[in-house]
């Protein structure tokens, strides 16, 4: 047998890598927060500072305006035996590796903190969820209602004293008069009333069980209130009941189930950070390749369903998108053994190597990639240049960059508004930093720009996969290590905390974990990009028509399994 030639690993293009930076200067942060920080806390991913509950807005404003922390990525609420905590995870859109956490400790009998909503609009839904599930209240919040559970629900499911056996009586709300004088558009002197229009929760255009309480002024959308929670399964609590080693990663496939392999990476990255687990280089290439195939799955589905939303096109575009999606699913089924709930990732690597014969699998992947450019051209001909499609998407659903940042938007939703932010490049993991590819952005800020981003990202995924296939094909056989040596039972040290995120098809998916020294997390928090992106829908839709509202919702590419978790 001839000796396998040594591969040449790709070098990093310095222009491509220009945004990689060192972590934040902790001394500068300490000086900036010296007046407000009570003490330091230890987090694995970022410096953490404990602050007073009534200093939240002042400290957030200081970090945003003086230090450039313009991205409130996540808010984690949790209860200890003697206190509650509300943790604010902050980073920067321009320098993702600059991170800081603010820890707000609250007394057991009176868990009330100052609302962060006046500084970061995205805190609105975060704080409602924290109240709903954990029981922390936020003073000054503009709309302190439950968000996932019915208004009549008793107790908070993630609080320590919650009785799981307690029966719940969920009351139906009284039917309200759809004509309401108090919902009239401000400044409108006419005698016409506004009308309440319910869209969903059971409607194909809502992409799942989503209820849009829409207020119309004539034919114009005056207000939209997304009502989520119909699908909520308390995934966070299920993960807290599972063990690190085997029982948590499979849950991740159920969140964004249209493109779910990247979800597995979010869980793996957080646990590996917590437990100091290294991943072999060969396994990183396998992770990167499989994840990019899964990203294509999500974008093909988003493209086909969006065309169905905006002008009812089923026979061509929808079917074309599913044709290509099925080919990718065939490839991933060969690789993982599953067609939908893949569970290919393992802590320290992946489940197994490429299927045998390797040459046949690689050839199948290359055949798909060779045919892809012609298929992308078809999408442009059928969609992008279609007159009806352009009328429905150009200059509708406008989301300005600063508004998108205020709501914590990420993924194609943010990049379609010109925000150059992608965790694969800006907080490198896997093998991405060694490969040649580009982050796709558009300046249109409308529904059309978001569609173009997804089409072009399919092409970038193809570039990444092609390079991974070259590496896998030439990798020396005796160095093909798919997993590192991970203990059968993992028990990270008690008190260790981390927040890690990856770039899935919808945007930034983050996971916060706190260990208590056992083989299961004491707290497991999921930061979903769909949750943030959907919260911005009113900004995109008010003042437009109902068909534009449907188009704007479709352009967000939400999955309710990811919104509700």
From TrEMBL:
Topologically, how does it sit relative to the membrane? Peripheral membrane protein
**Which Pfam families does the record cross-reference, listed alphabetically?**
Complex1_30kDa, Complex1_49kDa
Q: Which reaction equation describes what this protein catalyses? A: a quinone + NADH + 5 H(+)(in) = a quinol + NAD(+) + 4 H(+)(out)
* Membrane spanning residue stretches: none
Which residue spans adopt a coiled-coil conformation according to this UniProt entry? none
Q: What Gene3D superfamilies does the record tag this protein with?
A: Cytochrome-c3 Hydrogenase, chain B, NADH:ubiquinone oxidoreductase, 30kDa subunit
Sorted alphabetically, which keywords does the UniProt record give?
A: Cell membrane, Membrane, Multifunctional enzyme, NAD, Transport
GO CC, alphabetical: plasma membrane
Self-association state and partner proteins as the record states: NDH-1 is composed of 13 different subunits. Subunits NuoB, CD, E, F, and G constitute the peripheral sector of the complex.
* Protein name stated in the entry: NAD(P)H-quinone oxidoreductase subunit H
Biological source species? Halopiger xanaduensis (strain DSM 18323 / JCM 14033 / SH-6)
């Amino acid at each position: 047998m001839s000796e396998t030639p040594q591969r040449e690993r790709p070098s990093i293009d310095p222009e491509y890598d220009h945004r990689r930076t060192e972590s934040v200067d902790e001394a500068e942060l300490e000086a900036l927060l010296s007046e407000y920080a009570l003490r330091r806390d230890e987090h694995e991913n970022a410096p953490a500072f404990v602050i007073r509950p009534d200093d939240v807005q002042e400290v957030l404003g200081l970090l945003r305006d003086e230090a450039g922390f313009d991205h409130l990525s996540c808010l984690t609420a949790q209860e200890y035996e003697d206190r509650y905590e509300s943790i604010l995870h902050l980073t920067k859109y321009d320098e993702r590796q600059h991170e800081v956490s603010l820890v707000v400790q609250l007394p057991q009998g009176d868990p009330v903190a100052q609302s962060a909503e006046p500084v970061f609009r995205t805190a609105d839904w975060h704080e409602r969820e924290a109240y709903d599930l954990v029981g922390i209240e936020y003073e000054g919040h503009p709309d302190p209602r439950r968000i996932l559970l019915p208004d009549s629900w008793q107790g908070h499911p993630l609080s320590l004293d919650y009785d799981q056996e307690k029966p719940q009586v969920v009351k139906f709300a009284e039917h309200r008069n759809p004509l309401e004088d108090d919902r009239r558009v401000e400044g409108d002197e006419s005698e016409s009333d506004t009308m309440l229009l319910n869209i969903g929760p059971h409607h194909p255009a809502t992409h799942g069980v989503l209820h849009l309480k829409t207020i119309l002024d004539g034919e114009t959308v005056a207000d939209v209130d997304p009502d989520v929670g119909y699908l909520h399964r308390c995934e966070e609590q299920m993960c807290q009941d599972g063990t690190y080693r085997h029982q948590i990663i499979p849950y991740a496939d159920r969140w964004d189930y249209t493109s779910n392999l990247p979800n597995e990476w979010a869980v793996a990255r957080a646990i590996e950070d917590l437990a100091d687990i290294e991943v072999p280089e060969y396994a990183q290439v396998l992770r990167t390749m499989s994840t990019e195939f899964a990203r294509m799955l999500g974008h093909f589905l988003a493209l086909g369903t969006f065309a169905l939303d905006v002008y009812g096109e089923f026979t061509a575009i929808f079917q074309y998108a599913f044709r290509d999606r099925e080919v990718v699913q065939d490839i991933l089924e060969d690789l993982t053994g599953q067609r939908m709930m893949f569970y290919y990732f393992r802590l320290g690597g992946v489940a197994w190597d490429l299927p045998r014969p390797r040459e046949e699998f690689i050839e199948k992947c290359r055949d798909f990639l060779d045919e892809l450019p012609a298929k992308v051209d078809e999408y442009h001909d059928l969609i992008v240049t279609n007159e009806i499609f352009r009328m429905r998407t150009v200059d509708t659903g406008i989301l300005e960059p600063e508004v998108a940042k205020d709501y914590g938007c990420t993924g194609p939703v943010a990049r379609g508004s010109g925000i150059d932010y992608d965790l694969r490049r800006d907080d490198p993991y896997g093998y991405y930093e060694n490969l040649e590819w580009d982050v796709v952005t558009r300046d249109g800020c409308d529904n059309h720009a978001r569609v173009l981003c997804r089409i072009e990202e399919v092409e970038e995924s193809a570039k990444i996969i092609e390079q991974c296939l070259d590496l896998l094909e030439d990798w020396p056989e005796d160095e093909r290590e798919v997993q590192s040596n991970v203990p059968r039972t993992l028990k990270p040290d008690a008190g260790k905390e981390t927040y890690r995120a990856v770039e899935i098809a919808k945007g930034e998916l983050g996971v916060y974990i706190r260990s208590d020294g056992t083989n299961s997390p004491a707290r497991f928090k999921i930061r979903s990009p769909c949750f943030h992106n959907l919260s911005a829908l009113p900004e995109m839709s008010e003042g437009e028509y109902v068909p534009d509202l449907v188009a704007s919702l479709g352009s967000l590419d939400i999955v309710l399994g990811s919104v509700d978790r």
